[in-house]
Specification:
- The structure is a single chain.
- This protein has 262 residues and is an alpha/beta fold.
- The protein has 6 helices and 15 strands.
- Strands 1-15-13-5-7-11-12-4-14 form a 9-stranded mixed sheet. It has a two-stranded antiparallel sheet with strand order 2-3.
- Strand 8 and strand 9 form a beta hairpin.
- Helix 3 packs across helix 5 and helix 5 runs parallel beside helix 6.
- It starts with a helix and ends with a strand.
- The protein binds manganese (II) ion.
- Manganese (II) ion binds next to strand 4.
Length: 262
Amino acid sequence: MSQSTLTDLASQIAAGDIHIVDLTHTLDPDFPVIILPPEFGQCARFRMEEISAYDHRGPAWKWHNITLSEHTGTHFDAPSHWISGRDVPNNSVDEIAPEMFVGPVCVIDCSVDAAKDDDFELTPEVIQDWETKHGKIPKGAWVLMRTDWSKKSGAAYLNMREDGPHSPGPTPDGIRFLIDKREIRGFGTETIGTDAGQGSHYTPPYPAHYFLHGAGKYGLQCLANLDQLPPTGAILMAAPLKIRNGTGSPLRVLAMVSGENA
Ligand code: MN
């Protein structure tokens, strides 16, 4: 790559010809976290306490202590998050090579279907239908499932019913198609997990987690603003915190989108 590629990139960002889309929700205590059946351990919400605020505790400075789960808010799932990825090399957030965090992104728009069906499934047929319009998903792509679920808040976001949460996600065949046939980098959603709300009922349970992490792929969830991305052509940057042996982390997910797509 010539030096001018990076110089051109910087000037196009400065000129607004390439713009940066923030795919991240604001971390605040009200943002929902996943709720597992009561016999399991639970994920903590975000909490923030003031250390000082230009006062007797620190006259010239303001700062906070924060507490949260690795899997709170917009966050990254590493292979070590799932039992299938337990023995994958470099499977924790601190071990993943930084090159893996940046790549092309394909956005599969399922928002119309998800508006009609809370349990809408991403199947190989849905993916291949998208490919007839937008081209084959390139090897090493981030693939995001757009559902506009990020526009929901409060109870509607988890959408809990008596039989558990209801939200869209991939079928076992759908996620395996992306991994085995398209060799994706990772898979992201606007919902609380990479799996459907009813994902525990598939074989295997939670197939996105099971197959992605078993294959050394990454997950992103609680994404926002996917409606601001083109179907193809953007670059995604998703670098988790470097937590030793971390299974995931909240992060700022950014996409670079060129002017003709903006
Ligand atoms: Mn997670």
